[in-house]
Amino acid sequence: MPRTPSLLAPRGWTWLLAVGAALTVAVPVLNALPSGSALHLPDYLVPLFGKYACYALLALALDLIWGYAGILSLGHGAFFALGGYAMGMYLMREIGARGVYRNPLLPDFMVFLNWKALPWYWWGFDHFAFAALMVVLVPGLLALVFGWFAFRSRVTGVYLSIITQAMTYALWLAFFRNDMGFGGNNGLTDFKDLLGFDLHAASTRRGLYVASMVTLGLGYLACRLITGSKLGRLLLALRDAESRVRFLGYSVDHAKLFAFTVSAIIAGIAGALYVPQVGIINPSEFSPGNSIEIAIWVAVGGRGTLLGPILGAVLVNFAKTWLTGSIPEAWLFVLGGLFIFVTLALPKGVLGLPSMLGTVLRRRPAAPLAGEERAP
Amino acid sequence: MMRVIRFFLLVLLALAPLCGAAHAADDFQTLLAQLASDDFDAKAAAIRALGALGDPRAVRVLEALSSDGLYTTSDHKVVIAVESGDGYALTDPIDGKSLGTVTSDAVDQVMVNNSLRSDVESALAGLMLFSPRREDRQRAANDALKHPAPGRIPGLKKALAAEQDDEVRGTLRKALAAAQLSSTDKSEQLAAIATLSDSTSPEIYNLLAERRNASNLDPAVEKALDAELHAIAQRIRIIGFAATLFEGLSLGSILLLAAIGLAITFGVMGVINMAHGEMIMLGAYATYVVQQLFGAFLPPQWLDAYLVAAVPVAFVVTALVGVALERGIIRFLYGRPLETLLATWGVSLVLQQLVRTIFGAPNKEVGNPAWMTGGISLPGGVFLTWNRLVIMAFCFVVLGLLALVLRRTRFGLHMRAVTQNRDMAAAMGIPTARVDALTFGLGSGIAGIAGVALSQIGNVSPNLGGIYIVDSFMVVVFGGVGSLLGTLAGAMTLGIVNKLLEPVAGAVLGKVVVLVAIILFIQKRPRGLFALKGRVAES
Amino acid sequence: MRLRNIAKALVLAGTVLGTAPFAPAQADDVIKIGVLHSLSGTMAISESTLKDTVLMMVDDLNKHGGLLGKKVEAVVVDPASNWPLFAEKARELLEKDKVAVVFGCWTSVSRKSVLPVFEELNGLLFYPVQYEGEESSNNVFYTGAAPNQQAIPAVEYLMSKEGGEAKRWVLEGTDYVYPRTTNKILRAFLHSKGVSDADIMENYTPFGFSDWQTEVAAIKKFASAGKKTAVVSTINGDANVPFYKELANQGVKATDIPVVAFSVGEQELSGIDTKNLVGHLAAWNYFESVKNPTNAAFIKQWHTFIKDDKRVTNDPMEATYIGFKMWTQAVLQAGTTDVDAVRQAMYGQTVKAPSGFTVVMNTNHHLSKPVMIGEIRPDGQFDVVWKTKRTIKADAWSPYLAEDKGKVADWTFPWVCGNCTEPKYKAYAN
């Protein structure tokens, strides 16, 4: 699959960052305008856009390993959720004695389950710095261990996809258990504030949105750095012909492991930013369906590019927001149809659309699109 | 006629000490009226008294009462009513004469609840010990065994003396022994313990254990009880293990059924078919539709056969959907297995919503036919249900037929050729496109058949597919992609391991452990339990 | 070149994003109400019926001339059984659509997810499902049962002579907050009645659990101890069908081991063949089989609206009906849809409910409702075998739980709070 070179050209990504920066600034500024103003951005859109930004970051993380290293993880939702839980645990501890049962130490659900002491894995989460460290560390370590086992035994392709799915499925079931100490099905909710800022204040929301956008930008830069480096080229090579790269003497496992871990960390950070904006983290984030959906965002946007997943995540989620409100009984037809259409007609996603149109215009009659990819 | 008279006499004889001479046959009418009382205690007393009355007419009344068939008319007369057309056909319980048909407004049901129903049961059981029908007596004997009471001893002794059937005698003897356990006579106690010695039922174990906890037991009795309790516990443990194995096999057969279709579409063709679960769902809905059609167009005695008819219907419907899916979408995606995942995920969303739109979101009722309800009771309190046994057998039949198709038919040969080397197969003149479509149709069709079976144990709802999809993938990957034998072994292993873990770790943790085990296992054998051997270096 | 296109597209997308679908549609002659029930995903099985119920009520209201001279319009959205999406949709309904009230939610987690949104934006939510209690928000009216209106009467019934004098208890539930809470309260209640822990078995299974062989066998084993055993089931929606099928096939009869369920109503039973389940019980505040004119009219209205005579009614539908009627009355009384005014008008509001009783909204935002115990009939309906003489007031905080000791939910002077141990306006309380 040829890359879309123009997007990686220096001018290309500076442009992109400029647009991103403009969006980062514009949303909070427009939102801060008095509500009578014609340009005023309604309050509810700020966390919504913030949520999109987190999803975009998550999609970017998946694209790093799927689009560039050819590893389709169907368990990326797990890393996202783990990051979210780490943040959620901090937010729970922040509630302190303001909970329903006024217990200064234990979150409400623990009081309710008759727990007398804070379990050890909750220790330290009253410090933001510790929680932030865990946001990175927990998904990162899980990915490191999981990847180390999987890549070393050369589990590839579909098999890898399925066992990542098994991983998120197992975590899903485990987190549902109330005895696990993570709030069971209800998850963690009823957050009050973050670092002393009231989570229900408009200004905090704007801050979180800006933080999400900035992190998205940083994530983009990091991914660009990786994919532009020698390692990035190695990843591309092993995506296309793993055995050949191996025979050439490269350490394929280490390259994959690195990308997988970085990707998981980015996903974890996305999760951590997501939780304070939506106000809840619960095991359904681990559901296998959610992880598949992330892959779909990437595919819709165009995998193997860095802009694609961002665009795809925003597009699909925007469609979801819009359609669940405007055609609540038929939106699944539209969304399902969109997925089918994109896979069939736009193998390179929305980003591939311009180049495809170009091809079609240049030489018609057009070659059958779908035949294009058939392996020789 | 003789038998009935003897039965009547025996009943009177047996119950004489209980009811004394106070109740004459005229009491029947008084008690009957009392049944319709609004007072719960009065009703219960009436039932007990009817049971003790020994009037054969009471059997009919009590049976009607427990099956919601007793009504009162507007002039407060108690009648037995059977629904007929729009109204009710009435019978006089006193003389058994028909009272004609009335509309449903004209009668009021005599309400019963569980507690009254069990009063009726034990009242009937006392009467039934002398019933001319063997199964009634067996049921009554079982009831006596379940509720042992010293007061029942005389009746049981009489019944035992009159009983001819060996099996009923055996149960009666045990029931008698159970009642005699609390006897004050040491030798009688020891004899009772000896009679119960070959028992495997948890009820008797608990009965003995309770007896053992009683104070001031004779040392000899104590010793006999200890030995007996130990022996029974041992037997129950072994039987319990066998029961767990059965549960595991049953779960395994369900997993297998859900996964066989996937073993073809995913295992053989390499298509990650996320719409597989929805094929199962379509099969279940096809079953529902067939059931409704049978109910609407065929005489009621045919209704139980709907399930047999549903199998081919579900197969054809889902196979057609599968072929359409393959021709319309999947054929454009060969060689891009991960992208089939995305497209078929879209398909699954659409199919779910489609079913929701057509049939509505709530569950649909698919009944078990009579030949699949209930089960067989085995010693040790183990109960094998018919629906699970039938599904188990069915799953092996499906697997066998499929193996036959793959190994013995021309289509199977083509299919194997195409999956092993598509280009070579095409060069040999095999119509690969047609084989692809048919293979996918076959896989989908089998998923549809699985839906027929699953409708018998679970929900029929638009979410049905989602329950099984992840598990199906686990089974296929664990067993080894492309190997039917592997799928069989995988499903059974997972089923049994799951059930062995469940009592120890709980249902959730057990499953989590299984999933982690699969992940670790794949590290060890990246191609599953039964890897296909071949010269495939990198797929 | 291509990049510029993309950048343009991005800007364009941004503009579209910011305007078209989000543009609030304003009209002064309609009153909007939000319907926040899942129409897809796992909860659609239960929730979609409630959406239809609200639409039926709206339809009826409009036929009677609307409200305050305005037409009432239902804004239906699909939160798709996705909990964060519930919060997002709630925010959208309140901020973008400016709905006057929202009828919605089923699961506790969905309610917990939207609760901060309603409190922040001072919206009004009517929650129509039986739940675990332990909550009283100023922005929610709970029209379903609290544990003391369902669980405790059911257990009391089974303990009574009439109910079979159960001595041993199996608490079987799905592993989430409602069963955990209910069982915790029940355990405390059973202790208070002298039942020891050895006679209580508590077991939890995951959502959508489908293989009940082991659990049903365990129940039978537990019941073989000689004492009369009853099962209290708080198993959630989907998992019930396989549970009851297994019960029926393993021959667990209601006369031996009665199972009383708190989440199984007419609608759940319509997915099961009930011939072999006769006598098992359910506890609710309403059954379709209840005979009175209000219920007959309610059933008729439902059948006409849904155009299907086979569709059943159930308790959450009745709770929706009550909530909707009460809200309508409160709006009429207040003369406005303003949340604060309507809330004040809600207290003490009464409705003649299809259950045959007159239910009243209390100042703890919960209803006083009757409790009924029904036994399953072969046709999938229930025979009401026991009911309370009068309505019972819901406890937001359970008197059986240590951590709830002294907690009061009362949103009128001098308390004005949902979770406190002393009045907010203590100084002026005399």
Can you give me a brief rundown of this structure?
The complex is a heterotrimer of chains A (376), B (539) and C (430). With 539 residues, chain B is α+β, with helices and mostly antiparallel strands.
How would you characterize this protein structure?
- The complex is a heterotrimer of chains A (376), B (539) and C (430).
- Chain A has helices spanning 5-8, 10-32, 45-68, 76-95, 108-112, 128-152, 157-176, 202-228, 230-240, 242-247, 252-278, 288-301, 307-326, 331-345, 353-362, and strands at 188-189, 193-194, 197-198, 280-281.
- Chain A is an all-alpha fold and 376 residues long.
- Chain A has one domain (20-287).
- Chain A has a two-stranded antiparallel ribbon.
- In chain A, helix 3 packs across helix 13 (307-326), helix 4 packs antiparallel against helix 6 (128-152) and helix 6 packs antiparallel against helix 11 (252-278).
- The relative contact order of chain A is 0.17.
- Chain B has 539 residues and is α+β, with helices and mostly antiparallel strands.
- Helix content of chain B is 67%, strand content 6%.
- In chain B, strand 1 and strand 2 (78-84) form a beta hairpin.
- Chain B is flat and about 90 Å long.
- Chain C is α/β, with parallel strands linked by helices and 430 residues long.
- Chain C is 37% helix and 19% strand.
- Chain C has 12 helices and 18 strands.
- Chain C has helices at residues 2-18, 44-63, 83-95, 108-121, 151-159, 177-192, 213-223, 237-249, 266-269, 293-306, 315-334, 339-346; strands spanning 30-36, 71-77, 101-104, 125-127, 140-142, 168-174, 200-205, 229-234, 259-261, 281-284, 350-352, 358-361, 367-369, 372-376, 382-387, 392-393, 408-410, 417-420.
- In chain C, strands 7-6-8-9-10-14-15 form a 7-stranded mixed β-sheet, sandwiched between helices. Chain C has a 5-stranded parallel β-sheet with strand order 2-1-3-4-5, with helices on both faces.
- In chain C, helix 2 (44-63) packs parallel to helix 11 and helix 11 (315-334) packs across helix 12.
- The longest helix of chain C is centred in the N-terminal third of the chain and has 20 residues, at 44-63.
- Chain C starts with a helix and ends in a 10-residue tail after the last strand.
- In chain C, 61% of the residues are buried.
- Chains in contact: A-B, A-C, B-C.
- Chains B and C meet through helix 5, helix 10, helix 11, helix 14 and strand 7 of B and helix 2, helix 7, helix 8 and strand 15 of C.
